[in-house]
Amino acid sequence: MLSEHYETIEILGTNIAIAILFILIGLAIQDVLNKSKVPKFGRWFVWLVLFLGCAGFIAKGIIQVIWEAGI
Predict the structure, then answer these.
(1) For residues 35 and 68, what is the distance between their CA atoms, to the nearest angstrom?
(2) pLDDT digit string (tens) for 27-41?
(3) Contact partners, residue 42, CB within 8 Å, separation at least 6
(4) Residue 61: is its pLDDT beyond 80?
(5) Could you give the CA distance from residue 24 to residue 14 in angstroms, rounded to a whole number?
(6) Where would you find the membrane-spanning parts of this chain (predicted)?
(7) What is the pTM of this model?
(8) Which of 55, 35, 52, 19 has its CA nearest to residue 44?
(9) How far apart are the C-alpha atoms of 65 and 13, rounded to whole Å?
(10) What's the Cα-to-Cα distance from 63 to each of 4, 25, 30, 60, 71, rounded to whole Å?
(11) For the range 38-47, what are the long-range contacts, defined as Cβ-Cβ under 8 Å and sequence gap of 24 or more?
């Protein structure tokens, strides 16, 4: 059974690993912003850039699923 679903397990593991990586990056950025006492405008800008990076990754995944499904 494992050999039949190997590709699905691999894709799921990769997506989970990347999500965990994004969470860790967010926590590291939050720590640096707190220790550096960055102004509110700078914090909003940093979080906006981080969010857009995550949104791009999610959009890529959705486009890939649609493309492979042939919709």
Answers:
(1) 45
(2) 999 999 999 988 999
(3) 33
(4) yes
(5) 15
(6) 12-33, 45-67
(7) 0.65
(8) 52
(9) 16
(10) 25, 24, 30, 5, 10
(11) none
Contact at 8 Å (CB) between 63 and 55?
no
Burial 37-53 (b: 16+ CB within 10 A, else e): eeeeeeeeeeeeeeeee
Residue length, the chain? 71
pLDDT of residue 1: 65
Q: Which of 40, 44, 45, 49 is nearest to 22 (CA)?
A: 49
Query: In which band, very low, low, confident or very high, does the pLDDT at 69 lie, cut at 50, 70 and 90?
Result: confident
